[in-house]
Amino acid sequence: MDHVSATERIVRGGLITLVLIFFLFPIFWILLMSFQTNETILRIPPSLFFEPTLANYTALLTGQLKTTAGNLDILFMRNLGNSVLLSTCAVLLSLLLGVPAAYAFARFRFRLGENIAFTLLSFRFAPPLLVLLPLSLYFKQMHLTDSYVGLIWVYQLICLPLILWIVRGYFEDISPDIEHAYRIAGHSWRQTFIRIAIPLARPGIAAAGLLAFIFAWNNFVFALILASASKQPVTVGALAFVTASGIQYGQIAAAIVLSVTPTLLLALYAQRYLVEGLSLGAVKG
Amino acid sequence: MARLELKGLAKSFKNGAVLDGVSLAADAGEIVVIFGPSGTGKTLLLRLIAGIYDADQGAVFVDGEDMTDVAPDHRGIGMAFQNFALFPHMSAFDNIASPLAARHLAPAAIRDGVERVARLLKIDQVLAHAPRELSNGQKQRTALARALAGAPKLLLLDDPLRNVDAKLRFEMRLELPPLLRQSGSTVLYVTQDYKEAMALADRIAVLIGGRFVQVAPPDEIYRLPETVQVARLFGDPTINLIEVTPHSAGNGVAVTIGNTTVPIGEQYRAAAGSAALLGIRPEAIRIGAVDAGAIAADVVAVTPLNERLVTLLKTADGHELLASQPAGERAAEADSKVGLQFMRDDILLFDRASGQRLKAANGAGAS
Known about the structure:
A: MetI-like fold; two-stranded antiparallel ribbon; 13 helices; B: alpha+beta; CATH 2.40.50.140; six-stranded mixed sheet
């Protein structure tokens, strides 16, 4: 990088700034909005200077939404809890099922293996609405409508293919000889899987788990159709802010800030693994 | 220590058979080098023995016990891989300790075992390091130490010196034989370097085309190769091969090279009149003055090779021959005319069609 000229450096810096502004400005603006009242948000021209208020947050935390038409109960904190519960459980279940499956697809050739793997992947590109109608009928018959179990099950459509295909690649990158060496040293198949394959694929498992978590967190349509307010996550819960007396921009902004925070923190924490996963590349002794 | 027997091992993949009925018996404590050009299934053979793959046919016996249904972790094997296959997330110590830890030994016993083998291989200084912090040579020694640590009945070494530099390879060639003997294991050692094979082996098993072509002690392989292929694989420079048709001459058999009749001894009487290949090692050619009994040749070039001088020669009828002599001897001058003598005892005769060595009639070979 010694031969980069001054102009080149300036142009590069400028372009990077442009990209950063493009992506980060909305988040910044939302953060500002969450500390404003509906009036200051909607004034024209918009201004960076205002008197900050915590009213939006207190409304969310207490569950009391004050509008011109009167007080309204909202379940935002309940929705947030649902999001955490649903996404966490869905990802854990997916990891439990997906990681061994990914290992099997990576290491063994079996009849219809590729077809099964591809079928699982195809869940990712089928539009969810396609399966929702039959699903909602099944769910009614099986009494799974409006239940956490039902939602976590449906979330496997989102999480499982993702984890399966990402982790499979990581397993394939591990030299089989490393596993053979461990087996020959006197360890069982199960010990080899737990002490060699999983630790070596850990960056991939972390990355896949994180992505699956974000996708599950952001899901909207499954919970909208298959659950009622008490079981719905924040994405659906945010609809409550569109009230008869207008749209509560301030509360929506505060709700977004609160609902983005967990995934953001998780991503920051897992960044270490993600980078490690990229830089380690193929795991070679 | 264990006696190893391979009975008719065969394995094929979609694109054809790789091993085609391989049999071998190795005595307890013996070092057998499996030698062959690349792609002949040497590594696959070790994997069949280790139980990583299942053979299509045949079986592996250790001390007379059939290993077919025994899992790799219960075969009592130590193995070093060509690419080292160290566990990247464990320290060198934990790598070496893994065969001992698998037996649930006490931590003190594990420590003793690891340190003993690490001292032998001179890596006791780097035990705390992760594999990525080790030099190639240290990685290779760690891999060997791991294979040796469990004092396995059977030690399988898959070309362990392939990925280390020439200097280290030479050092290890000297260090390994006493180390392997000390281990007391029966050793199968895979290599495609004939010098390594000759340096380490009690016996060499030459694997070509999925079969053992010859299994014999190193000097026998060198002196009396079963086939032309084996003869060419051993020796540097490679053996000289000349197409000849032996004919009766007086009370013996001779071949004609250029205008010179070279007697090859009456033990080859049966070969008279057949299409044959005469094999002569470069060091069995003496370069001397032009005279009646000698093969006339022109000196094309002289070049040093590993403390020897190699001379490229051209006979009157166009055969190019290589002769090699100790570097101290007086070299022939380029472009001079010389006479060549083949050392009679070192002449080998092969069938031209099959490549098989023609056995002398008295059964004792050419010697």
